[in-house]
Amino acid sequence: MLFSCDNIHMHFGARPVLQGISLGVHAGEVLGIVGPNGAGKTTLLEILSGRTKPTQGRVLFEGQDVTAMPLHQRARCGLARTYQSPVVPEQLSVDQVLKAARQAFTPYLTSHHAQWACDQVGLAVNPAQMAGSLETLNRRKLLLACLLMRKPKVLLMDEPAAGLLGAEVDEIDSILRYLAQQMGVGIILVEHRLELMTAIAQRVVVLDGGELIAEDKPHRVFDHPRVRAAYFETAQEAA
Ligand SMILES: Nc1ncnc2c1ncn2[C@@H]1O[C@H](COP(=O)(O)OP(=O)(O)OP(=O)(O)O)[C@@H](O)[C@H]1O
């Protein structure tokens, strides 16, 4: 297993938010995480990325225990993370954003690395354009290009299709498929859109109330009685 966690528990005060979560991803595999609102998906991504320390449990990267390793060190090991909102530096041009990303790496990456990364995600915009004026899909592509030039081994993604429509979702789908299949990146993906999950994930885990209640292939995971109950009850409560 390339990247995994083992028996993760998380409490906020006395409140348990994650209870005994174990999962992992292989190189070139896409693992999906779904679950109703408040299930603990984002909290788990925060723990996997190193932004939050779990109350209990371990995170393992290529067999090494990285539980105590902070976010920036995990990034150097090859872990990358994207967020639900594609926040870019509004006052910098696309070229300046890419340059800042190149210079955040030691030794500095070259403009060839940046161009290569832009090509991988199909980012074709005027380099002088202000990043703040990009629409959602190109913001996501720019942020992904900044990560890809570091050649990550593992990518953690929180709702990469949020704010996208139709053909744009298909484009993200193709990019993620390419990263996994051609570049061998292990991807852990939190996503509400089940069609995206079904299209690209090999396995899906379902969280509910901080517990892992099912793990299966995407087209089978909703056959599990606990998964149906979690979604049905949530829908009923919301009605
Ligand atoms: N810093 C925090 N302090 C206290 N409680 C928190 C904190 N962060 C999250 N929670 C609680 O933990 C639970 C899980 O939240 P989390 O955001 O991980 O769920 P989620 O599955 O990502 O939900 P959504 O799909 O709505 O984004 C929620 O009940 C939330 O209110």
From TrEMBL:
One of its GO terms (molecular function) is ATP binding. InterPro entries: AAA+_ATPase, ABC_AA/LPS_Transport, ABC_transporter-like_ATP-bd, P-loop_NTPase. GO terms for cellular component: plasma membrane. Keywords: ATP-binding, Cell membrane, Membrane, Nucleotide-binding, Transport. Residues 3-234 form the ABC transporter domain. Signal peptide: none annotated. SMART domains: AAA (SM00382). This is Branched-chain amino acid ABC transporter ATP-binding protein. It comes from Limnohabitans planktonicus II-D5.
